[in-house]
Sequence to fold (144 residues):
Amino acid sequence: MLIKLYATIILLTSIFGGVYYAYNHYVNLKEELELKTTEAIRYKESLKDSEEAISVLTQQQIRIQQETLKLQQSLQKAEGYNTELQRKLNDHNLTKLSSKKPGLIEKRINDIKMQREILTEKEKQLEQLATEKEWKEVDNDNNK
Fold:
């Protein structure tokens, strides 16, 4: 009879131990599942933010390429104008012309200097406006 009692106690202890272990395992799995779910949500949000950043950078890259193309076209025009001026200067003997008609040559050179100063000033203004516009666009993109 005592053996049956001990066997029953051991059996019940084993059953309760197994149930306790299973319950603790269930609770740990549930907590781990909640943690992994939270991490997955954070990763999805991070992925969304990264995709938005990539989209903004792609748009900026396209805009930069367009502006670079415009600048290249502008440079080509300026180089063409420079080539034309070089050709004209090579065709004329300025020393000979300046000794014959000093007022005419001086006036033309002064006019060219004035045009160059005006263009330089306008270029500075346009560059400043473009820079301000870019910073405003960056600020607007960051505020979204």
